[in-house]
Every structure is written in C-alpha cells, then in structure tokens.
Description:
- It comes from Cupriavidus campinensis.
- The protein is about 65% helix and about 10% strand.
- The chain contains 18 helices and twelve strands.
- Strand 11, helix 17 and strand 12 form a beta-alpha-beta unit.
- The chain is elongated, with a radius of gyration of 42 Å.
Amino acid sequence: MVRLLYRQSHGVLFANFVIPVAVVFVLRHSTYAGPLLWWMALVYAVTLARILLSMVFYRYESSATPRAWANRFAAMSWVSAALWGWVGSTALFPPGAEWTAFACIVLAGMTCGAVPALSAQPRIYVGMVLLMGGPFIVHNAMQPEPIYNVYAAFGIAMIVVNSYFSRVTYHTLLTGVKLRFENLALIGQLEHERDRATAADMAKTRFLAAASHDLRQPVHALGLLSASLAAVAERGDVRADAATQISQRLNGTLDRMGGLLDGLLHVSRLDAGLMPARRRPLPLGKLLADLRDEYAEQARQRGSTLRVRVTQAWIDSDPELLRRILDNLLSNALRYAPRSRIVVGARRRPGAIEIQVLDSGPGIDPSQQALVFEEFAQLLNVQSEHGLGLGLAIVRRLADLLGHPVTLRSTPGRGSNFSVTVPLARDAEPEAPALTSAEGLAPADLQARYGVMLVDDDPQILAALGDLLAFWGHTVYAGATVEAVCAAHQRARIAGPAPVDLILADFRLAAQVTGRQAIAWLREYLDTEVPGLIVTGDTAPDRLKALHASGLRVLHKPIAAPLLRQAIVETVRGGVTAESAHSG
Length: 584
C-alpha cells in the first residue's frame, strides 16, 4: 500500500506544477502577483522535495520500512497542503466574493484530484484536506455576508464527501492488493502442487522400476525351485531331506516376496486410517530384549554384530506400532550397513526416552538425508538387497500417528543414527498377555477338522488352497462361484452329513461379486451365521475401509501357511463362542 501511495502521487505532483501557474496568471496584473510568485516558488520547492523523496524510495524500497516511508510522505504532503490552505484563506487574493469562488474552485480541484492519489493511506488524505479546506472554511465563517456562509458550507461538504470517497477508494485499493497477494499465493501453491505431482510421478516411475525388479527376483527364484522340485521328482521317490531343503528355500523366497508386499499394505492401511494408535504404559526393557532375541541371528548371518542395551523404563506408546517402527529401523540398518556394528539403546531426555538405532555403516550423504523418509526413495550408491523404499516412509508416518519425533544424524563413512523419542509413562501398568504366535497352535488345534466352504474365481488358487485345506484334514466344498459351492455341498449331503464350520472367500470375485456378498449368500443358503474369513490382495485404501467395516476377519495375500491355519482355528472358535453366547 505504501508503494501504491508513492506510485499514484505522480498526478498530484504534476498538478502542483501546473495549477500554481494558472493562479499566478489570473492575478498577474494585480498587486498580489509578487506574493503569489513567492508562494509558487515555495510550492515548487516542496514538490521537488517530494519528487526527490519518491526517487529515494524507489531506490531503497526493497529494504525500506513501510511505516517510516509513509510518515515521510505524510509530512511532505501536509506541508504542501498547508501552502494550498494559504490560498484557501484568500490572504493572497483580492477581497471579494468572486475571488473567494475562484479559491473554492482551485481547492475543489486539488482535493478531488488527490482522492485516488492519496487514498492508499486515508490518514494522509484526511490531514491534507483539513489543511487545505480548514482555512477556507474559517475565513468564510468570519465574513458577514450570507454568500460566504454558502462557501463555508461548500467547504465543509467538500471535506466530508472527499473523505468518504477516500475511505471507499482505500477499501477498493486494499481489496485489490489483497487479491494480488492471494493470486501470488495461489500461483505459488499451484507451483508447489505441480512440483509435488511431478515428484510423485517420478517416485511412481522409480517405484514401478524397483517393484518390477524386486518382485521378479523372488518369482524367478520360485520358478527355479519349482523346476528343481520337478527334476528331483523325475528321478523317482523324493527323499525327505531333499524335499525339506527345497521347501525351506521356497518358504524363504515367499517370505521375501511377502515382506515387499507387506510394505505396500502398511502404507495403504495408514492411508485408510485403519492403524489407530492405542497408547498405554509398557516396559521398554522387554521391548528391547525382544528385538535383541529376534535380530541377533540375522545380524550374525550378515556378518554384523548387534548390541542391545536394555533400559528399564516405562514408556507411553502403542506396543504394536512402536515395535513396527523399531523393526523397520533395525531392518534398515541390517540391510544398508552389512558387516557393521549395530547398537540399539536409549537415552533419557526430559520427560521422555530417545530410542536410538546406530550403525557403523557407510552413512548417508547430506544431499540424500531429506529423501530417506519419502515413499519409494532408495539411496544411491548403496550396495544392499533392494526393497521398495517404504520402510522409513512407514516409520515417519507411524511416528506422526503416535506423536513420536523421529530424527536422523549421519556422516558419510561414519555410520547413521536413527532415533525415535517416546514420552515416559506416568503410571506403570502390567503388560497385556502376549498373543499366540502363528506357529504356537496347540496339538488339539492341529488335529481339528472342519467343514470349509471355499470361494475363489482363480482356478490355480482354488485348486492349491483346496488341496492344502484337504491335506490339513478339512472337508472342502470349493467353487469359483456361490452357486458352484452350493452344488458341491449338495452333492456331499447326498452322501451323508456335510457340516460347515467356516466360509473362506476371496474378496474380489467374478461378475463384480465381493467376498462379503458371497459369505452373506452362503449364510442364507445354510440358514445359519457360519463364521466367515476373507482373503484379499487389494491394498487400495477405500477397499481396506470397506473390508474393515464388514466386521469379518481379513487376511492379506500372500499368506503364510501357519498364519492361515491359525486364522482358521481362531475364526471358527470365535464363531462357536459367539453362537453359544447368542443361544444362551
């Protein structure tokens, strides 16, 4: 607004050069010509000073203080206005009503012309119009003739009306300036969003390239292992040790592929808001001890040494989400810092504990440190087994969800230090009992035999899963559609009793049918609320929300056989318990 004030004052400065010439010209033959020439010289001097002030402002406006420059402008404007107020007092004009009218015309032109020029600062305009019109009003109010009362009233109206229009013009100018800055901000925001979209597109391209490579690797290994198994079978009976060895390799390859896909699933679950934080007091010592027990062997196999300093303290966090953060940080250290020394410890901070994962690996270049927490980011010039670049992105998002700050300190060639700061718990509480592990089924559970309705429109998965369930001893009624499953069950009922304890359905079936609908239709066919279990490969956030809202248990592909077996047992047990409670 101050810049606008200086820029729009050019018209007023021009008027200060032209109108004094007209005034002197009108009275050139009167005895007042001499004083008017001195008055004109003063007006020109002040106007030249105002022009010089504007030139200095334009030169130093980038470092100018707006209020100081507005005050300088106001002082010069009010000095100039006082000189014009001298004209309004008619002290420089001959006596007579006609000369008072001439002074009124001059002042009206100057005050009206200054409205657009000085309205960027209303206080400056109001001061100017009072200094110009005030002497004119006082002079006319002191005259006895009625005509001067008309001039005085005109002077008052001139001040009031022009001040009003100055205020209106000020708001118009202010609105225009605000719109200009809003447009600039909008342009900046659009450029930022464009850059984000460009970065996201580049990240997607890098991700597709990484996914293509990293998912092809285990698929290629599976093909080779399958060929090896076929070659061994062609020689005759397969020895138990050979089959076990190939099975272990298959499971290792599947675990690697599952780890890659789990990263995508975790991101989708975060996007869908299906990973709520349930913070509670928990012992940090047990969490660190569990990390040591789980990762010690992995570190040894990679040629690294893992040292965990167990700290006895109670912290306030979600045990599952915090464990996932530390798992990712420790896995990241093992992957990118092979054959190094890794230390996991904790340092006390005011009201909090800073859990640190340090390694003596290659470190991270400062230019890449800002990128490591971005999705699909992979460090350059790092020799490691590649992932999809989601581990640290998941760490950042989980930490934001929990409100735990995550920091990175790293020096190339001297290792890295990832840390997460967790608040201390106010009150220590006993830890909740641990959940049963996937491999922790009791012998009675392993011997359980159920009737299972299986719906999957993929022939290969339908056959493989049906064979696996049958191998476990379950009776399977399988089909690609609900109708096919019902037909298989009808055929089994002809031969004898065909109880159904569980419905296992893929989520996305043919003809736009969902697993939720299939389970509902099969329950209607059976006329009972049989427990349902959905298997899906969908990771889209909206699909995950829909699955979560269904109330059914969901397993995400690929599924390890022990986890599937445990889920079947727990789902059937939960359904039986719920049914018994309902009957009671």
